[in-house]
Design brief:
It is found in: Cytoplasm. The strands form 5 sheets. Strands 1-2-3 form a 3-stranded parallel beta sheet. Strands 4-5-8 form a 3-stranded antiparallel beta sheet. With about 500 residues, it is mainly alpha-helical. α1 links the parallel β1 and β2. Among the domains are: about 40 residues, no CATH class; about 100 residues, Arc Repressor Mutant, subunit A, CATH 1.10.10.350. It has 20 helices and 12 strands.
Length: about 500
């Protein structure tokens, strides 16, 4: 028998929208998980609805308090807020599954009273034996045998010391819903058997507690990954029973986001891939605005030929029905490029402040920076803001401004032309003539251009700028790449600039 979407499916819109983020506290937060909460958050904020953050921590062997704290750290760094849930409370507390066992028992009792579930005593061995005897493939699993147990048979099992599991009586009809991303989906009748909600001994399972929490917390829209789509059939069946038993009054809408693929091949981005590790990306120097912008593009677009947008623009434009169902590929270079765009959008003081943790971690500045270090940072940050993609580049780009003791990088030394010493000596001579009171970037540039770029017949070396200024950059920073050269000299001052130029001459012998 074919079916249509259940008419009791919610029609909630606007402020009535309630979505949820319900991770298990296992392992480190990864970008796929963050995209899930981002889409839920953006949908809630777009509609003026609510985001509920709860924790699915019933797997004591895998769950950890450390992982729970890391989830909180991740969301706080990303500035993704929630309206109800752990840490903030709300009308449906507690928001950790491990603290809700009495609630699950009460819901089970209601399902028992409504005849929606039944006692099941079959062991795995007994199910396999029956399937073999009936010529039924073992992989088909449970055969709904216990549906028809008599009271005498149940009593006999109990007399053996067996405890029953509780299975949902799955409807013998097609189950259809309209996926907000993928359109109408139908699960044919008989495509899955009656399934266990509560194990023998009273342990509630995920296929039970997840929809029950959604029902009791009034979740109207379940937005999650494509990999969870097969479980929707069981959830639809359970939701029908929950409505019939008076636990809830509606069935939520479902939306299944596309897979996130790795950079090569067609495999899902592994949680063990370094690119999937949220905190590794943060350590590299992503800012939350840049990373969230990029993650939003994994299945969604704000418009044609536009990749960079603010979080406010994301919220204003986002609708879950606009998400593309096709797999999205994680592209590290594109992510870093977009992050660089967001770095350039920061106010200068904000940008400088965000560099501090990276400079502290590399022992470039103290925590907090000294007044002299802070003054140097405020002056130097604008020199690199236009050319940085990751905040983690800050120690390498700016470190030379905070110390007189640095090493020359091998590739920098290898880049020096044969006439490097001649260039350095001529530069020292030119800079010594610049008045101490006018050692500005403009004055420095004029002096060096006269000595190095001016044709030989006019008293200069007649060099091309790249050849002329490369050795100076190496002398000042020890690197081939540095902030703008003349501005760096101004920040270092005349005496230190000349000392460093001479030091490279001495080092080359």
């Amino acid at each position: 028998m074919s079916s249509s979407p259940d008419p009791r499916t919610t029609t909630a819109t606007g402020a009535d929208v309630r979505v949820r983020f319900c991770p298990s506290p296992t392992g480190l937060p990864h970008v796929g998980l963050i995209r899930t909460v981002l889409f839920n958050w953006a949908y809630a904020r777009h509609n003026g609805g609510k985001l509920i953050f709860r924790i699915e921590d019933t797997d004591a062997a895998r769950d950890s308090e450390e992982s729970y704290q890391q989830l909180l750290d991740a969301l706080r760094w990303l500035k993704i807020d929630w309206d109800e849930g752990v840490e903030v409370g709300g009308p449906h507390a507690p928001y950790r599954q491990s603290q809700r066992h009495d609630i699950y028992r009460d819901v089970l009792d209601k399902l028992i009273a409504a005849g929606a579930v039944y006692e099941s005593y079959s062991t795995a061995e007994e199910i396999d034996a029956r399937n073999e005897a009936n010529g039924r493939a073992k992989q088909l699993g449970y055969d709904n045998y216990d549906r028809g147990l008599t009271d005498e048979q149940k009593q006999a099992f109990r007399a053996e010391g067996r405890e029953p599991a509780w299975r949902l009586r799955v409807p013998d009809e097609d189950l259809t819903y309209v996926d907000l991303i993928r359109g109408e989906v139908t699960f044919p009748a008989g495509s899955f058997p009656d399934f266990v909600l509560v194990r023998a001994g009273g342990v509630p399972l995920y296929p039970f507690v997840n929809p029950v929490d959604d029902a009791l917390m009034g979740i109207t829209h379940v937005i999650r990954g494509e990999d969870l789509m097969p479980s929707t059939a069981r959830q639809l069946a359970l939701y029908r029973a929950l409505v019939d038993a008076g636990v809830t009054t509606f069935i939520p809408r479902f939306a299944h986001m596309p897979l996130v693929l790795g950079e090569e091949g067609n495999k899902k981005l592994s949680k063990r891939d370094p690119k999937a590790d949220l905190f590794l990306q943060r350590d590299k120097g992503f800012i939350h605005e840049g990373l969230l912008n990029y993650l939003a593009l994994l299945g969604w677009s704000i418009g044609p030929d536009r990749d960079v947008f603010s979080l406010e623009e994301l919220v204003a434009a986002f609708d879950i029905v606009d998400v593309n169902p096709n797999p999205a590929r994680f592209d590290q270079k594109k992510a870093e490029s977009i992050n660089g765009d967001h770095i350039r959008m920061l106010a200068p003081d904000d940008f400088a402040a965000r560099l501090v943790p990276y400079l502290v971690a590399a022992a470039v500045v103290e925590e907090p920076p000294t007044p002299a270090q802070q003054a140097m940072l405020s002056a130097a940050a604008p020199l690199v803001q236009e050319r940085m993609q990751l905040l983690g580049d800050a120690p390498g780009l700016l470190g030379f401004l905070f110390t007189n003791d640095f090493a020359y990088q091998d590739d920098a030394l290898a880049s020096l032309p044969a006439n490097a010493n001649e260039v350095l000596v001529a530069s020292v001579g030119a800079l010594e003539l610049v008045p101490d009171t006018d050692f500005s970037a403009a004055a420095v540039q004029d002096a060096l251009a006269g000595a190095l770029i001016t044709p030989a017949e006019d008293g200069g070396l007649g060099l091309k700028p790249r050849v002329a200024y490369g050795p100076l950059r190496v002398a000042l920073s020890g690197r081939r790449v540095s902030p703008p050269l003349f501005e760096s000299m101004e920040l270092l001052g005349k005496a230190e600039t000349i000392r460093r130029l001479g030091a490279l001459v001495d080092a080359r012998g």
